[in-house]
Amino acid sequence: MATIWHLDEGFHLDQEEEAVIEGEVEFTADTVYHHRPFEGLEMIIEVDLEIDLVHVVPLDLMPLVPEKFRESAILQAFISESGVQFGDFLTKVRDIVLLLSPNTVSSRQYLRYLGALIGVTFPPEDDSTEEEIRKILAQALDWYKLKGTYESTRIIAMAQSFGVNLFDMYTDDYSTFVLTDWFVGGENENPPRLGPAYYKSPHFGVEVRLNQTRVVGSQDYLWSGPWLDNFAQQIEDTRPVHTVPHYILLLNPKTDEYRNKIEVSGKIKTKITSDWQFSTKYFDMVGGGQAWSFDSSEMTFDSSEEAFIQSITKWTLGTGAAIDNSSGPAIQHPVLTGTIDVSDIVIDSEKYQFEFIVPKSVVQAGITELGLYIPGVAGVGDTLVLVSNFPKIDLDGRAEMRAAVQVFKSDLS
User: Fold this and answer.
1) In the prediction, which pLDDT does 356 show?
2) How far apart (Å, rounded) are the C-alpha atoms in residues 332 and 316?
3) How far is CA 266 from CA 147, 245, 270, 272, 373, in A?
4) Which end of the chain has fewer CB atoms at under 10 Å, N or C?
């Protein structure tokens, strides 16, 4: 027998009608003890039940029946059941409106149906949770209002839990590009530091900040290639006309000159080695691999850190655990290497920044470590000055990776 009541119309949970609910329950025993050894076990089972009530409003159809017929028990039973059935039907009709809101649609299947009505494309079934689909659908109207603008790309990224930076891309030869913030100037005016030979290309940069992890299988990842599939498709649907999206992954390790192992968002851990030269020198310095005396020839008042910083021009990426290496900081399994242009090394009052690009054409799975070196002669005698570890990054040949390694002059611990 179906139990029907409306909680706002004076009906109660202990009314006369009742229902039998059948289901399967799996118990785990947190507390087990021997009540009578050799006779059996006594188990204490605590159960919390959560019941979702789907209620209808039964209709009172009796006023539609002439009074002289209302005494019939058969008619009363028929009218009562009819009231329940019509109430159930009208409740379902009333609840149709709930299928039109991403916040009230009750299943992943109907969320996809609702998205199809307004042309929203979702990630594949196996790659998306109900929460992600609901979030994409809730952002759809804002996205359509801004379709064809950079801001629509930002909304798409937010819906898929990506943080992005968006850039104009200028060039003077259409083979190398310079990333700049969105710029509006006068005729023949370029952004600062770009000469008159540069012009704005139809390319625009979509840079995904690698600052959060996701679990793939049982392992943490900063980036997995398939994550770009739906993201790129969504951008293709909204990009400004006659433009070309250029996908970039930003890896931004940070540490300080005090040999602290600094961890930033995304479980990115970074540390300098004992071969790093401190930029802040004192009259007498001891310990930590750095030692000099005010009265010795090792210390001069006008010494500068610039020469040392600009000598760090080699990078290496690997698939090991550089910081946690048992024999000391080292790149355990190097797989990619390259050079840092001196013009891409920035020195300011707060920090040093070393920037390099891993080209889009590179295909490499499982990158987990990074090292910066002072190169030796012909690759022999390289000096490792900084190491970093992070969750896995997979490069699949569709996005370049920009690494911006920052070393702060102040204590970040």
Assistant:
1) 96
2) 11
3) 30, 25, 12, 19, 24
4) N
What's the predicted TM-score (pTM) here? 0.66
**Structure tokens, 136:** 């994409």
State how far the Cα of 198 lies from the Cα of 150, in Å rounded to an integer: 22
64 in helix, strand or coil?
helix
Give 9 or 373, the one with higher predicted confidence.
373
Predicted local distance difference test score (pLDDT) of residue 92: 78
Write out the DSSP string of 400-413. Answer: EEEEEEEEESS---
What is the residue-wise DSSP string for 226-294? THHHHHHHHHHHHSPTT-EEEEEEEE--EEETT---EEETTTEEEEE-TTPPPSS--SSB-STT--B-T
Pairing of strands 244-251, 199-209: parallel
Taking each helix axis as running N to C, give the angle between helix 227-238 and helix 150-159, from 0 to 180 degrees, rounded to the nearest 10. Answer: 150
Matching residue, tokens 């005729």: 187
Instruction: Give per-residue pLDDT as tens, 127-170.
Output: 677 887 888 888 787 777 877 788 888 888 887 889 999 999 99
Residue scoring higher pLDDT (99 or 125): 99
Which is more confident, 237 or 334?
Answer: 334
The strand ranges marked E within 300-399 are 314-318, 334-339, 345-347, 351-358, 363-374, 383-396
* Burial profile 115-141: b = 16 or more Cβ within 10 angstroms, e = fewer: beeeebebbeeeebeeebbbbbbebbe
Amino acid at position 380, single letter: V
Would you list the domain boundaries of the chain?
Answer: 32-99, 165-250, 254-274+304-408
Of 161, 236, 174, 247, nearest in space to 204 by CA = 247
- Cβ 224 vs Cβ 364: under 8 Å: no
| 384-387-388 Cα angle (round to 5) | 160
Spatial separation of the C-alpha atoms in residues 123 and 227, rounded to whole Å? 9
Please state, in angstroms and as integers, the Cα–Cα distance from residue 206 to each residue in 137, 178, 180, 210, following that order.
Answer: 22, 13, 12, 13
Residue whose pair of structure tokens reads 């064809």 in the numeric block: 148
What is the 8-class DSSP label of residue 292? B
